[in-house]
Each structure stands twice: as C-alpha cells, then as structure tokens.
Amino acid sequence: MKLPPYSSFPLISDNKIRLQKITASDMNDLVEISYYNAKQAKNIAEAIEMQAKIDKDYEEGNSIHWGIGDISINKIVGTCGYYRGLDNGEEELGWVLLPQFRGQGFMTNAMQLAIDF
Predict the structure, then answer these.
(1) Residue 35 three-state SS
(2) How far apart are CA 83 and CA 86, in angstroms?
(3) Which of 34, 52, 57, 79 is the most exposed place for a label (fewest CB within 10 A)?
(4) Alpha helix locations (H) across the chain?
(5) Which domains does the chain possess?
(6) CA nearest neighbour of 76 among 39, 28, 41
C-alpha cells in the first residue's frame, strides 16, 4: 500500500457503502463513536478536536481514517481505517459502527473494501 497522504483522499465504494473523508458536519452523527487514543469524545467539540488529530495523523502519513457512508440514506454510520505501523507494513485495521446499523453487513463491506485497498 502506498502511504498517505494521497494526491486526493481515497474514496472507495460498492453498491451499499462508501468509504469517504469525514468532515466537521458529520460529527453530530458520529460523536457517540468518536475516539482518539482510546478516549471517547464526550461532546461534539471534543469529537471535532479528535477528528482534527486524526486528520493530522493522515497528513503525516500515519493513518487513513474513513467514514462508512450508507449510500441509501447518504449518512455516515461508522468509521474504519488503518492505524499505527503504516511505515513498516504492520498497520492495524480498526472500526466502529453506530449501534443501530450493526448486524446489517456494513462492517463486512467496509472491511472488504479497506482490505482490497
């Protein structure tokens, strides 16, 4: 895998989901599953701060963090990405999904798209 940052943020999709860049406008939907260094955001302001750190990690080539977008409702329902160890080929793939979207195949699709990437 070529290391980030890429000339344009990778957008990957299938017929159900889209792995896409997370923006500040997505934070209202994601605050309950926003984490950074194992700390959970308590509010939208903290979630936005955490996303800024995640974006900085991407710009420094240390991770890639996608929002998992449900194409049918045009909403981000979770996150996934590669973290830690990108520079030596030992990255880990992590994910979080909003509870109401679990058990519907979103994560299976997201993992397969990320692995194929």
Answers:
(1) strand
(2) 7
(3) 52
(4) 27-30, 44-59, 106-116
(5) 14-116 (3.40.630.30)
(6) 28
